[in-house]
Amino acid sequence: MTARDVDSGATLASSLEVARGFLGRFMGLMGRPALAAGQGLWLPGDNGIHMFFMRFPIDAVFVGRPDADGLRHVVALRPGLTPWTGIVPFIAGAHGVLELPAGTIAASGTLAGHRLAIG
Fold it and tell me: What is d(CA 83, CA 86) in angstroms, rounded to the nearest whole number?
């Protein structure tokens, strides 16, 4: 899977893993040594994340439900989340989260309101 910002034209992730089920979403990136450029984790349906047991910082992009054209609007951005900082509060209107390498949001020019193609 991939994630692309339709409005900026940037690819956020060219290799996107999907966290399936409760355990997959709970575990997320915990215990992994790093997340390489171009990689990411898609947490469909989620509106909050945690940073417990993380070894590296990440950027988080919270998106809404897909529109009629299948695109999802960015509802919130949380760049540079540091390991062991606890729970990121639930984001109203979010219905999925992209966890990406730190710096991805700034490099892509992604802003709240932008439309993402995830698939």
Answer: 8
